[in-house]
Structure formats: structure tokens, C-alpha cells
Description:
Strands 1, 2, 3, 4, 5, 6, 7, 8 and 9 form a nine-stranded mixed β-sheet that branches. 38% of the residues are buried. The chain is α/β, with parallel strands linked by helices. The chain contains eight helices and nine strands. Helix 7 links the parallel strand 5 and strand 6. 32% of the residues lie in helices and 25% in strands.
Amino acid sequence: MDNKGFDEWAEDYDVSIDQQRGYPFEGYRETLRFVRNTLDGVKGKKILDLGVGTGLLSYELYKREAVIVGVDFSPEMIQRAEEKMPDSEFYVQDLKDGIPDELCDERFDNIISSYAFHNLEDDEKIELICSLKELLTEEGTIIIGDVSFKDSKDREHCRKRNLEEWDDSEHYIVADEFCTALRDRSIQCRYTQVSSCAGVLVVYNDDQREIRIS
């Protein structure tokens, strides 16, 4: 779906997302909760939310007094996020075009994203992650929740069970392969499967941490 499609969805997104069943939104709320729970003591911390949408992920962090900066390619989605988080900072930009120039000299305690990275091919994801690491504080993390799978066998199993809904134009993370590609770039990470078709990838700024998939 392009930004126009998300503009049209923005008005009832928060309600409609809870009515989704099965692929691709199985475990959606649980995935967002997992991302938030991965963060500890967010008060006063600066957090960049990529693909912020209507703010469903970062609003709970905002209420815990985190400083939120959001990026999304849908102006209508951002308008809804601004209504929830009026003291935050927002930018309209497609992740395919990288990070807004205004943020390139900023530093963030955490960078989070939910259900946005699947629009990028794997090599684009890796290049973006590499550039995002430059924006992290010393102990910062990148936390990505999205449609993703532990291995190619699980991905194929999901595809076969959902042939009518399956979208071949989207690029889902296959964790064992993707983490290997990150390791080849000296990037350490941890992946956890949350539901049958969603998981959370944590990328560390500390390159000495061990890759783990669970």
C-alpha cells in the first residue's frame, strides 16, 4: 500500500487494526507491546519512531515522558499522531529515501519501528540499519517489530496457509538469514518470534553482543 492508501486508512486505523485476524496482523498488539517492554526507563530519553503511523507504538512511551520524534510517509497518519503527542516532532518521508536531513546530526537513545521495514528489500534494510546506528547514543538500540519469521521454513508455511492474502511485493525478514547478513557487517542483534507471522529484531550499538534467535 502506498502513502495515499495509508492516508485513506488513517481515520479508522486504530479501530480497524484490532479487527484484523491472521496474517499479516496476527500478534500486532503483542508485537508493539514487546517493543515497548524492551525499553526500560524511557523518561526523558529521545526516541525516534520510524513509520510512526498514528502513534500506536510510541504513544505509550510518550505517556511515560519519552521525547518522541516520528517519521512516516503518510501526512494523514502523522496528523493523527500529532493529535495524540502534541509535544513531539514529526517529519513526512518515505524510509526508502533514508532519514530526513534534519535528523542526521541528532542522537537518539532508541530507534523503534513497527510494521514499516517490510516495505524495504533486505539490502535496503541493512543499509538503513547501518545509517541508523550512526544516530544512536553509545548504549542505544534499534528495535524493529514487523511481519517476520524465524527461518525460511516458517515463512513458507505461512505463505502456503495464506495464499489468497499473501503479498509477494513485501519483503519480510527471515531472521536466521538476516541476522547472518548483519553479522557479516559486524552488527550484533537479537531476534524473538512473537506470533506465527511477527517478531522483534533488536540491533545493538555495542558490537560485542552475541546474536541470538529465539
